[in-house]
Design a protein that fits this description.
Elements lengths: L1 E2 L2 E3 L2 E3 L4 E6 L4 E7 L3 H16 L1 H4 L3 H17 L1 H12 L3 H21 L6 E3 L6 E9 L2 E5 L5 H15 L2 E6 L5 H13 L6 E5 L2 H8 L4 E7 L2 H12 L4 E5 L5 E4 L5 H12 L12 E5 L3 H14 L18 H16 L3 E4 L14 E4 L17 E7 L2 H8 L7 E5 L3 H10 L4 E4 L24 H6 L2 E9 L13
Parallel strand pairs: 1-5, 8-9, 8-11, 9-10, 11-12, 13-14, 13-18, 14-17, 16-17, 18-19
Antiparallel strand pairs: 2-3, 4-5, 6-7, 7-20, 15-16
Bound molecules: nicotinamide-adenine-dinucleotide.
The site of nicotinamide-adenine-dinucleotide (NAD) has 29 residues, from helix 8 and helix 9.
Length: about 475
């Protein structure tokens, strides 16, 4: 069994309590993880608070912070094979994807390394002749970052990158499911030379998450996970009014019009729902397809679902690996059964293969006669696609927006004018036209509605970890005129 440690105040700790992590490909324990208590969380936050106020970090120039982030980016790139293998082993995400994802995890750190000394204040053309007024952008303080299990290195990078570029310090809680890659990543943070306490990484469940979100020294919470957990976080943060950004789930529509390139749409739909075994917040889990091309598109998708290489996640040829947890496989099975009971028709998949591990096959449900099915409402977080036909553009838009979520949407059409109309009408934080599941450090990412608020990625994300300080400096040596009048 491999053993992993917490990283608190610059030291690696085995932790008083530990738990076993299961290999999703076999269901067997493979590693020992530390389990953070509320006391561990408290020590980590206090370390982050001390580091925030101490010279080794607070006294660094923004350029020097950028250099540290740059070193971290190169260390991540250099450790890519080990990080990818660990993520695959601990979460079941296929090695093809984890290997590719590490490359852009490094790119996110590079991007924020470059941004560190471009987070500028401003000088105001103030309406008073004897004043100089300028804005300083200062780091907000200690950041609590809480991430789910599906893409931990990536979801950590989109928080750590901007937070550190802005000068904050961070306590990062890895998910209790599949934390190995982040605990390993702590070694790179250490090697990069960040002063002790600037980045602290631990893992644990809801108890540790609550302790972190409610800690009075936390100024800002960056959360990715489900909406129910987000409500706990928001309540916990109310005590000290910490600022929050929430990246939550989705039930994203994937809309295909009859003028679309169907081969391309089918490929993008496969990327949108079967890649990452559907465990993607942006999963295009509702296929809305114009009636005239429904059968032609479904033929392509069913053929792909049936021929997909389902197997061990550590093999390069595997296309669909196991789900991360047994719990997740049971939940998906239950939601499919409820959807079928509500009138959905199972076209392909639906039953886990008879093999060890938490596998679930690509599944397609025709929900034409099941408008109330959970498959059209609930986020499955698995490789399950629900299909609904539509006749007109107006109907497509109505169906697409018939969700409480609003994370992502895909539109496939060759009509430029229709693409623009759809982009305007869709209630989603990201709209992909004739593509799907593309991300970049340059592009903001986040949701509408139950998909959360705040944006990750891009310049605005770094500004989001700063607070503006407005400075007034009087340039006149004359006495202040009338002290009883605001001027
Ligand atoms: P989850 O909400 O159960 O857990 C997320 C994190 O919150 C974990 O670290 C967990 O330990 C912690 N947590 C649990 N209870 C807590 C509490 N009471 N207080 C504080 N922290 C607590 O999510 P999950 O099941 O691990 O992940 C799947 C969810 O994440 C899906 O809804 C998915 O869509 C979402 N997600 C969103 C994005 C995005 O960027 N929008 C990306 C990936 C995943």
């Amino acid at each position: 069994m491999e053993r992993f440690c917490h990283y608190i105040d610059g030291a690696f700790e085995e932790g008083a309590a530990r738990f076993s992590s299961l290999d999703p490909a076999t269901g067997a324990p493979w590693a020992e993880m530390p389990l953070a208590s509320a006391a561990d969380v408290d020590r980590a936050v206090r370390a982050a608070d001390r580091a925030f106020r101490s010279a080794p970090w607070a006294g660094l120039t923004a350029t020097a912070r950028g250099r540290l982030l740059s070193r971290l980016a190169e260390l991540v790139a250099g450790a890519a094979p080990r990080l990818a293998a660990l993520e695959t082993r601990d979460t079941g995400k296929i090695i093809r994807e984890t290997s590719a994802q590490i490359a852009y995890v490094a790119d996110y750190y590079r991007y924020y390394a470059g941004l560190a000394d471009k987070i500028e204040g401003a000088h105001l053309p103030i309406d008073k002749p004897d004043m100089e007024v300028w804005l300083r952008r200062e780091p907000v303080g200690v950041v609590a970052a809480v991430v789910p299990w599906n893409s931990q290195l990536f979801l950590a990078a989109v928080k750590l990158g901007p937070a550190l570029a802005a000068g904050c310090t961070v306590v990062l809680k890895a998910s209790e499911d599949g934390p190995a890659p982040l605990l390993e990543f702590a070694r790179l943070v250490d090697a990069a030379g960040f002063p002790p306490g600037v980045v602290n990484i631990l893992t644990g469940g809801p108890e540790a998450g609550q302790a972190l979100a409610s800690h009075p020294l936390v100024a800002r919470i960056a959360f990715t996970g489900g909406p129910e957990t987000a409500r706990h976080i928001v309540r916990a943060a109310a005590a000290n009014l910490a600022q929050i950004s929430l990246e939550l789930g989705g039930k994203s529509p994937f809309v295909v019009f009859d003028d679309a390139d169907l081969d391309s749409a089918a490929n993008a739909q496969v990327a949108g729902i079967f890649a990452a075994t559907g465990q993607s917040c942006v999963a295009g889990s509702r296929l809305l397809v114009q009636r005239g091309v429904k059968d032609a598109l479904l033929d392509r998708l069913v053929a792909r679902a049936q021929s997909v290489a389902l197997g061990p996640p550590d093999r390069m040829e595997t296309e669909v690996g196991p789900l991360c947890t047994r719990r997740q496989r049971e939940r998906i099975g239950g939601l499919i059964a409820q959807s079928v009971a509500a009138g959905a028709r199972l076209i392909v998949g639906g039953t886990p293969p008879d093999r060890p591990g938490f596998y679930f096959p690509p599944t397609i449900l025709d929900c034409s006669d099941a408008p109330g099915a959970p498959a059209l409402r609930e986020e499955f977080f698995g490789p399950v696609l629900s299909v609904v036909p539509f006749d007109s553009e107006a109907e497509a838009l109505r169906l697409a927006n018939a969700t409480d979520y609003g994370l992502a949407a895909g539109v496939f059409t060759r009509s430029l004018t229709r693409a623009h109309r759809m982009v305007r009408g869709l209630r989603a934080g990201v709209v992909w036209v004739n593509t799907y599941r593309a991300v970049s450090p340059v592009a903001p990412f986040g949701g509408f509605g139950l998909s959360g608020y705040g944006r990750e990625g891009g310049l605005a994300a770094a500004l989001d970890y700063t607070a503006v300080k407005t400075v007034w400096l009087r340039t006149s040596d004359d006495p202040i005129p009338d002290p009883f009048v605001m001027r």
